[in-house]
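Support case: user asked for a sample of complex input and structure output to validate their parser. Sending the pair below.
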Amino acid sequence: MSKSKVAFFDFTSCEGCQLNKLNFENELLGILDLIEIVEFREAMDDKADHYDIAFIEGSISTPKCVERIYDIRRRSDILVALGSCAVTGGINAMKNNHPADEVRETVYGKDKYLFPSMPVQPVSAIVKVDYEIRGCPMSAPEYLHVFKSLVLGRKPEIKDYAVCVECKLRENECVLDKGMFCLGPVTRAGCDAICPSFGQYCTGCRGVVSHVNRDGAIEMLKEHGFSAKEAENRLKMYCTNELESINKWGA
Amino acid sequence: MGRDLNINVHHITRVEGHGNIVVDMKNGVLQKAQLDIVEAPRFFEAMLKGRNFQEAAIITSRICGICSLGHQMTSLKATEAALGLEVSDQTVMLRKLLVHGATFQSNVLHALFLAAPDFLKVGSVFPLVNTHKDVVLAALRLKRLANDVGDVISGRAVHPISIVPGGFTMLPSEKDIAALKEKFIKQAIPDVEFILEVLISLAGEIPVFERETEYISIYSEEEYGLYDGKICSSDAGLFPVEDYLNVTNEFVVPHSSSKHAKFNRTSYMVGALARFNNSYALLSPMAKKAAEKIGLKAPNYNPYMNTVAQVVEVVHCIEDSVRLFDILLDKGIKNEKPNQEPTRYGRGIAATEVPRGILFHDYTYNRQGNIVAANCIIPTGQNLANIDDDMKKLVPEVIDEEKEDITMKLEMLVRAYDPCISCSVHLLDVEFVE
């Protein structure tokens, strides 16, 4: 079997997902037997012209990002969006909730025109994305699953049900029942409910499931003393770009 | 007749984020030597407006994957200061362990995977897997162990889960802590001693260059300043953390989407070497011995030695972690709930030493517990002016060398600072202009 040529690219992001890849200390050397990493700026100097698989981390947030992603797409057979920033715009998209001028002035003051910026968008808003690995950060086991599938020429299985399902399977006490807010009922699984398992609430980092039971979720939140408005506000942390598609959360 | 030289390194590799090195010399007169920061701006301070106090650390953690723990820690301390939330001794000890873990994880990653390829004249760590497998494996084991600390104590090493304002949502068991302690003693100490030997054998590859500058770090009388303390300037002494704006004096320069900083000179340095210079006397005994063996004495004015200081800190963090494990095991882990009942609303400022230097978070909360103003000052941003000043002194000193060698020394210089550009813009490339 010839080795797949794999490349990693970082756009607007914290590079935490890339870092997580270097965190497979036990599997890293095994993975390197199966692939040839041809581009990975954070870890190496080399650059290449064609990629079998390109992993994209980060959101599109400047005109330069748009140019770069077109160029990478042209040279890639399979393009995978990696992590919340790439898949939905993630936490970066929170800035879309504030007027652009105000945002730039808050950070750069009178020098606000020096650095161009645009509304934060997911990679799929600009080019075709073949596979998505969600999460902030991406879940390591899910990434390994997708990675191995693609290298072996198989179609990876991507989960599309709520975090609640995985949370119940782990036999956690319901976060809402503990009196805390939670976005588990509307958020995509695949993380193995890691935050509720460590006593935190689900922040919705993986984006919403494709068929949200909006009314059911609102009713359940109300039963636990939380308003639809609060849910909408909490969703803005990771799902600003998805809020329109699940419109009228606040209704 | 002086030399014309143009160097333009676009998107310097093996650093976190996007930057370019630009050097322009005409007739032997240096026109420009600077690090352009081209990372896309992210506007975290604006994003924080209106967010709840429980969300602040979750959001600021996402400024940077590598420094996520440091951002969370600083964010939590700023929130606690603003809302008057006291935390327990147990919380502080567990947090110090997390800071140790994050510091030695990041220092190992930088020294062995990002900087060491330069000393061995290869383009990345990957060829070293074949030529120096035992070193790579030791480094991987140390990294894994550092991540274990994060996983066990905070739920996840990248973007921790269970550390919240006022304490922890879930606590590790004494069994977990005892297992970590055993790994530290049986595995981490021999591994770091081995890596130290390798580093000593490579010490000749570290460029000789000196430029004394102002060194700024956290200083604590009780311990090597990492988790908390006062601001310490090697030029001007100690300052309360609340005075951070008078120390950092941030300003915007056109070649960088990350702001620059200065205090008593045109620039100052933060990071492992600054900490080492300011707090040498407080290093653990093993770390002091390691510094001695490798020939690093405080004060040291060679920025390339920052990488060496990082490895000395790895030793310190490992040894001090064992001390903290012992105290925790001795006292036993108490099942405490986080203290999230605000006693006041207002402004809170905090500083933590993260691997790349001193980090400041400053929040103001309204009576609903939502943020009305936020400011984050990041170590790499504070180092940028100092990197430019180093380049301006270095280029004339090495001007008779081949262009490739000059470029290499400049890249190594930038890498020595272990810049974290995502953080600083909340931004690195090298451009030589011909």
